[in-house]
Write a structure and sequence with these properties.
Length: 133
Amino acid sequence: MSELKLYSLGIVVENKPVGADIIMVSPIEVLNIQGAGSIKDASTKSEGTLKNADDKNFATEMKSSSYLKATWLPLGNSNRITSPDVVANETVILFKFGDVDEYYWTTIFREVELRRQETVLYGFSNLKSGMSA
């Protein structure tokens, strides 16, 4: 059984750079309580004190955000070389691999009101037989 699992719908936080496969995305079914404004600017910093094994205090700090990085998964697009040029506020579907913090994305809806002038590269072979590794 595969460890690649459906994780969440996501909202793209910022336009994907041309030529890149990684996007910043907010998993809206997992982190669904967010304030108004830009998702990218919403971050939290927590500070505190903990005790180590020797019972001595030490300072700790944690930073969190409402988005994560995800890599393009060409699901159903095996001949597509370049990832879709998704833009801020576009909806994608996210996958997660096992218990590892590795996330993957692909488009799910046709949101023509958002995405324009996309750069697309497809690859097709004219070889009669497959290449050997």
